Amino acid sequence: MYLEDPNGGLVSVQTYLLDEEKRFPGATGRLTWILSAITLATKYISARCRRARLEDILGSLDSENVQGEVQQKLDVIANETLLRCLGSRAGLAIVASEENEEPIILRTSNDPERPYIALFDPLDGSSNIDVCGGVGTIFSILAHDRRAKPMEKAVLQPGIRQVAAGYVLYGPSTILVMTTGNGVQMFVLDPSIGSFLMVEKDLKIPKACKSYSINEAYVDSFPEGYQNYLAWAHKNGYSSRYAGAMVADVHRTLIRGGVFLYPPTQSAPKGKLRLMYEANPMAMLVEQAGGKAYSGSERTMELQPGDVHDRVSVVMGSPDEVDLVLKHLS
Ligand code: AHM
Ligand code: MG
Hints:
This protein is of the alpha+beta class. 29% of the residues lie in helices and 26% in strands.
């Protein structure tokens, strides 16, 4: 059910953001304008995902992305859509995508009118689209650091410096979950009016839930602590849920509780997921909802990235469940 404002009006994502701006007397509206580029792009991506089979845009291309991974046709469409929508917005100095080798500098001048950086994973879990499974877009907004030299290095900031983060899940409905550092809000796209409407304000993750989300097929190549945790969970009445798309798995974890894990493996010794495009924005959401997010023994959002495509291990979710995992890792 839609939430209403005190006057009985619907709360769209734009209404919410304009209201949020009022909390900051000096607000310029630039962040709102950037976030509205993301809602525009994701509405378009949502429509393309829904028609993917009909438009023959399922499956992979012959090309690989910067990380040597096969690109899906929709990866490329989603990436171009976000770059097009964000690239024209005043307020952005740099845009970085999981699909592009280098961050894109939108203005080489250190223009003070462009105080933000946007990073995104355009279509996370994209191979799920072929089987009509959930996929999503993940985004992170940082304040631009104009002192950085060369300028691309300005993106290399720890997650605690994010000013906004969120994801859009393209599932049975299209859902936007986001934070600007003042709690987590959830919106559902009403396709009949083309607008994201608020359905939950200040979302909180359950404190505990006996559920874990992990690709357990790799158990033999996880470090011992994760193997011990899983053996302990088996004996203690846990259930397992894994969609294979981080957005879908973290969304379920936020709503139902539990823990989402992607440990280091022999083939990905640092972990598979990307710190800046996936782990940090999800960590900000989970923490803002009252949960915890760690990479090994370190809080994910305190890690200093060395490269924009850095990978990390991930343990995030309900605070009590994350503590139980960490206990087995120590
Ligand atoms: P992608 O960004 O290339 O789609 O990869 C990230 C995805 C995540 O959505 C998901 O959690 C993970 O890869 C699944 O990996 P695996 O198939 O190894 O379980
Ligand atoms: Mg991804």
